[in-house]
Amino acid sequence: MESAELLRQIRNELQNRPQAPDSEWKTARQWGSVWNLCISQTNRMLMIAVENGIMEMRKFRIPTPTRGAYPIPHYRQIK
């Protein structure tokens, strides 16, 4: 039981530690608003951009009202 309890404590600590992305990181919905595209087109463009090295993706733990701190993908242009 000690190892299971330790693992539970580690997971709880990770979920309680939200991360704040910089202003250059945007979610797919935010990029869709900038580009004036629907979410499916935006996701397709982001996937192509990440595969070709134009943009990078990173998951940040963002606090949500129902799920605690949840990993949400954010994207930014590679300089």
SSE blueprint:
Layout lengths: L1 H14 L12 H8 L3 H13 L3 E10 L3 E10 L2
Antiparallel strand pairs: 1-2
Helix pairs in contact: 2-3
Keywords summarizing the entry:
44% helix, alpha+beta, two-stranded antiparallel ribbon, 79 residues
Overview of the structural elements:
The protein starts with a helix and ends with a strand. The chain is of the alpha+beta class and 79 residues long. The longest helix has 14 residues, at 2-15. The mean pLDDT is 88. The chain has three helices and two strands; from the N terminus they run αααββ. It has one domain (2-77). Strands 1-2 form a two-stranded antiparallel ribbon. β1 and β2 (68-77) form a beta hairpin.
Mean pLDDT: 88
Strands of the largest sheet, in order across it? 1-2
- Beta-strand content estimate: 25-35%
Span between termini? 48 Å
Structural class: alpha+beta
Radius of gyration: 16 Å
Number of domains: 1
Largest sheet report: 2 strands, antiparallel
**Helix and strand element order:** HHHEE
- Poorly predicted spans: none
Helical region count? 3
Overall 3D shape: elongated
Q: What is the percent of helical residues? A: 40-55%
State the total count of DSSP E strands.
2
Task: Please outline what is shown here.
This protein has one domain. 44% of the residues lie in helices and 25% in strands.
